[in-house]
Each structure stands twice: as C-alpha cells, then as structure tokens.
Specification:
alpha+beta, Nucleotidyltransferase, domain 5, four-stranded mixed beta sheet, 30 strands, about 25% strand
Length: about 625
C-alpha cells in the first residue's frame, strides 16, 4: 500500500513568489489582480486592492452587497444557484439546499459526532474515517465541490466588477483548521479555477486589515474575537519580526448570531403562546419569524425598542434590555472561551496590546462591552466586522504580488511537496508558496490487515495524479507491527530548511519504528519548468479533480468490499440466509460498477450496500456485547 498526502517543492525558490503569471496567456507580468477571499460558514466575500487608493476594498457587484451567503441550491433541472437567491430555498427545498458546508471541509463522518442532525440535507454515514459526502438524489458531492461552487460565484462577481480575469487568490481559514481542512480549502479553490497562493489564518488577516503586522519590526500580542452567524472563536496571536504565531485558539463551532436569533424567536413564541408543533409544521411562518428575529437583533444595536408583526397577528416586539437578558448566557460562553484561550497562551489581559473584533455579531453592544471589560481595554471595531477578514486577505495578496515594497517577502516554495497515496493520488504536505524554513506533516494508516511495510514516495508538483508530477525520492518504512487495517498510526513529516534541503521522515507511533530520507538541492527546476508546471495545473484542474474523485470513490468502494466480505466471514452464523444472499447480491453490484469510472454510480452502490448492511451489523454488535458481558471472547 502507498500512503496518502503530498508533494515536494522544487529547490529553486527565490524568484517565484515575486513574479505574476497571466494564466490566460502564460506570459509573465508584473501586475495582476490577486483577490482575497473570506470563505465563511454563513457568509463569504471577496476583496482586492484598489489600484488608485491602494486600499483594500470589498467587491460589491451590481449593487448586490459585499456579502454572499454561503448557500448552494441545486434545482430539479441541474442548475446551481449560489448566494442570496439560494437562501430562499432553505425552507422550501431544504433537501437540495446546502448550507454551512465549511463545517464539513476535511471532516470524516465520525468527526461530526452529535452534530450529524444539524444539517437538513443527507450526509452519507458509514461510521468510518472516510471524508464526508453529501447525497442529493442520485448525485454525490464532497464539501470541496460545494465550497468550489461558492468560490466560483465569488470569482465571477470579482471578474464582472473588475472587468478582468481573476485566476489567483488568497483564502482565509480559522486558526484551528487542521491540515486536512486547509488542504480541502486549497482543493476547492483549485476546482473553482483559482490558484490559491496562500491559506491565511482569519485572525492574521484581520490583524493585517487593522495595519498590525505591516511593519516587520513591530512586536505585539493580539486577541482576535470572531463571532459570526454560526461560529465563534478567540485567537491569541504573537507578532514577531513580521511573523504571526498562533499562541492559542478556543471557541465553539456551533455558537453564533443564529443562537441570538433563536433566543428572540423562543421569547416571541412564549409571549404569543404559540404551539411549537404548529411552528415546526409551518415552514413559512418559521422562516418569517427567523427573518424578523434577525431584523430585531440588528435594529437593537442602534435603538432601544423594536416592534413589528408577523401575519398581522403575531406581536414581535422586544426591548434592548430584554434582548441582552436573553443573550447574556451566549455572551458569557464566549468570554469563558477568552479566559481559556488566555490561560492556554499563558498571557494575562494586561499583556494584550490590541483586541480586534471580527464577525457581524460583534455589532451587538453587549458583546462589545463584555469583550472590552474582560480585556481591560477598548476593543477595536472601527472596520466593518463583516469585511475585515477579506480586506486582510487582499492585503496579503498584494504582498504576495510584490506590490508592497516596504514589506519583506520571505522565500517560499514554488511548487507543492507531498507523497503518493492510494490510487496514485498526490497528497500535499507542504503547499506551494509556503514560507521556508518550514515543517509540516500528516498522519496515515494501513489499509490491509497485517501490513508491515509502507512505501513513501515523495513528489513535487501541482497535479492531482502523481504520474503528472515529478518524483524526488522513495523509501520503505519497514517493521510496522502486524495489526488490523487502520490501527497503525504513521506520521509523515517534511522538514524544509532555509537552504532548500528537504528531509522526509516517517514514524509509526505505536512501535517507534522510523525511517527518513534527504532530498538535496541538485533536483532543482528552472523558472521556465516551474511556470509550465503551474500552467498545466490550471489548464487540467477540472480533469484532475474529476480523476481524483473517481479514484477516491473506487478506494472507498474497495474498502467497503473488503470490510463487508470480512464481516460475512466472521459473523455469517448470526445472519439469516436471505440477509447473506442480499448482501452478496449488493456486493456483486458494487463490483460490477467499479470499472465504470462513474463516481456517482460507484458511491450510490456503496451507499446502498451500507444502508442494507447497517441493521444487521448493529444486531451482531449487540450479540458481541452480550457475549462479552457473559465472559465470552469477541472476535
């Protein structure tokens, strides 16, 4: 078996970050629009540096506003609708309307835990470590594909407003995003036709928007309080020599302004003596109340009383005092997170030089007052909290474009570095444009019972298939203890030093078995070769992603076949003959569809097999538990 992520950068690093490539012509140029994108859970937006004012500006295309709701709707005839128009379908056609997809990026089914029922659309759940997929009718979508639809809309708006092709971007992510989530964000950008120059932490982008970090000699400790529609996080950053270090981050990915709206709705239900069941059945009334609650929340940031009606009979009035009483527990939770983050960072409020407010929900006066009181200083909310992250991303994009001569641009990797995984896929370890020196790693496991060796093949390039990239090195990690598939934990780390020497190490954590290899700088590429590799990655982006998805679907199917066949061998005595026959029939259907190359058909067969086998798999588990309690051995 081969492992998973990867790619290695060529070792001629110094010039690539300072040169722009016109991706429509392939020519080198000094000026090109590089946008900054805030890909949010609830809302997204795109910004750029205005060529005359040299200031970051959020794009407002056709007067539709700067904010694009992160909602995707698929119509019956296959049309895709993104943004404000898609929001209307959240209540009328929830099964085909996707929201909060950012929560699913880089996540497995098990990662969702108790929040599986949060979503109104169907998430395939095979109780595995596999990445989440969403089923809409007979089609299957990954969070990467759905995020790409949002990014395509942002790109289209930018191109329409700026009257120029937009091919390059900086995209922001929460500071707590792990490597898998960051790579998924990169992949979404690639699928949307964007070269993602860098993934930037949202708190770092917000700091840049406020001018913190522009001067390389500046040294500060900053708190970034980010309260959006559906998520909250607090990050403590240390700025030293132009580099932001995340000291700690804390929060709740299911806490935000939506909870404030819900508190208002519950208050109105009680005041009007509405029956909860009636509300649940009347989706239109539910939506109207939600919109009124959001309107009330915004109004109470400016005034003391809000009054309105729904359906002419339901009184929707509330005072700011009552509103603050209702949301006090929500605000208290965020302050407790601030306390935890400060403890983790080993800092006191007195040691914080600046507090920055991000997210639309920070407009609520009680929130601002509570944060300022906790840190003992006035929080900075002078910039539009909805736009601040995108504005910072635009500044970072401008730095990467080489347009800010006053800022030191550190050497970066010109091409992605990574390894080969199952099916001949490229899994990124160090993405293109990462600052050097740097270190990054990912964790892998085995796919076959008793596997004792793992081949680590190191590649460099931007294509999804390793055969299209450049092989740099290969070695075997031997002596892995023989264990069931999925039990070994192998860390693969890339350490790239300032001289461009790459060291790759693999360590099996349970046994301590390790192996490493060094890749020397003589494997460098010329600037022309690097440019051609980048051009090829954009030209073939859609084909590459399609090929990757087919391979991933096949891998999922092969693992399902292996697991179900093994289950039948070990537990056949607990099953009825008709259950065994039906399972074997579905196994054969899955085998038959594997060579088709149709991702949706393969995943549909996988889903059908999983749905059919789940009930008796649970029954066998109950039998095993009873045997264990009786002192019998479980296989």
């Amino acid at each position: 078996m081969r492992c998973c992520p990867g790619a290695v950068a060529s070792l001629t690093y110094t010039n690539m970050a300072k040169v722009a490539i016109n991706l429509s012509t392939g020519a080198l140029q000094q000026e090109e629009v590089i946008v900054g994108i805030d890909l949010g859970t609830t809302n997204s937006l795109v910004a750029y540096i205005h060529p005359e004012t040299k200031k970051p500006v959020a794009i407002n295309d056709l007067g539709r506003g700067t904010i694009v709701p992160s909602v995707v709707h698929f119509t019956q005839n296959g049309e895709t609708i993104v943004g404000n128009e898609a929001k209307d379908y959240l209540t009328t056609d929830p099964a085909n309307t996707i929201y909060s997809v950012k929560r699913l990026l880089g996540k497995s089914y098990k990662d969702l835990g108790e929040h599986k029922d949060y979503f109104g659309y169907k998430i395939i759940d095979d109780d595995s470590e596999g990445l989440v997929k969403i089923r809409l009718g007979d089609k299957f979508y990954s969070p990467i594909e759905l995020s790409a639809e949002i990014l395509k809309e942002l790109r289209a708006r930018a191109e329409h407003a700026l009257k120029t092709p937009v091919n390059r971007a900086v995209i922001t992510v929460p500071a707590y995003f792990n490597d898998s989530q960051r790579q998924a964000t990169r992949d979404a950008g690639k699928l949307a036709g964007l070269e993602v120059l860098r993934i930037v932490n949202e708190p770092t982008a917000a700091s840049l928007a406020y001018g913190i970090g522009i001067d390389p000699s500046e040294e500060k400790t900053i708190a970034v309080y980010d309260l959006g529609g559906g998520t909250f996080d607090i990050s403590i950053l240390s700025l030293h020599q132009g580099i932001f270090e995340v000291l700690s981050t804390h929060g709740d990915t299911y806490l935000g302004g939506d909870d404030m709206d819900r508190a208002i709705i519950n208050y109105w239900i009680e005041e009007n003596q509405l029956v909860a069941d009636t509300l649940n059945q009347d989706k239109n009334l539910q939506q109207e109340l939600r919109l009124k609650a959001e309107e009330a929340k915004k109004a109470l940031s400016q005034q003391q009383i809000y009054t309105s009606k729904v359906n002419g009979t339901i009184e929707c009035g509330i005072t700011r005092h009552k509103f603050e009483e209702l949301i006090a527990p929500i605000v208290a939770k965020t302050i407790e997170s601030c306390r935890q983050a400060m403890g983790d960072a080993k800092r006191t409020p007195e040691q914080i030089d600046a507090v920055i407010m991000v997210g639309g929900s920070t407009r609520v006066p009680l929130v601002y007052e509570a944060v300022s009181e906790f840190f003992g200083k006035q929080a900075n909310n002078s910039l539009n909290p909805d736009e601040v992250v995108a504005l910072g991303a635009a500044i970072q994009a401008d730095i990467l474009a080489g347009n800010r001569k006053d800022i030191l641009l550190l050497d970066v990797t010109p091409l992605t570095l990574g390894i080969e995984t199952m099916g001949g896929l490229m899994d990124s370890i160090i993405p293109r444009n990462s600052k050097i020196p740097t270190k990054a790693g990912r964790q892998y496991t085995t796919s076959i019972d008793g596997q004792v060796n793992m081949k680590i093949s190191v590649y460099q390039g931007e294509r999804d298939l390793v055969k299209e990239n450049r092989k740099l090195a290969e070695f075997d990690l031997k002596g892995i203890p023989a264990m069931p598939a999925g039990f070994p934990k192998v860390d693969v780390n890339f350490i790239l030093n300032a001289d461009g020497i790459l060291k790759v190490e693999a360590i099996e954590l349970r046994s301590g078995v390790r192996q490493e290899v060094e890749v020397k700088p003589q494997y460098g590429l010329t600037d022309e070769q690097v440019e051609q590799m980048l051009m090829d990655s954009i030209t073939h982006a859609r084909d590459d992603v399609s090929a990757r998805m087919v391979i991933e679907a096949r891998t999922t199917a092969e693992q399902m076949l292996y697991q179900v066949e093994r289950f039948l061998e070990k537990n056949g005595q607990h099953l009825k003959q008709e259950e065994i026959n039906l399972t074997r029939e579905n196994l054969q259907k899955l085998r038959d569809v594997l060579p088709s190359g149709d991702k949706d058909q393969i995943l549909k067969a996988v889903d059908n097999l999983e749905e059919q086998t789940s009930p008796f798999a649970e029954r066998v588990m109950q039998i095993s538990i009873k045997q264990a309690m009786a002192g019998k051995k479980i296989e």
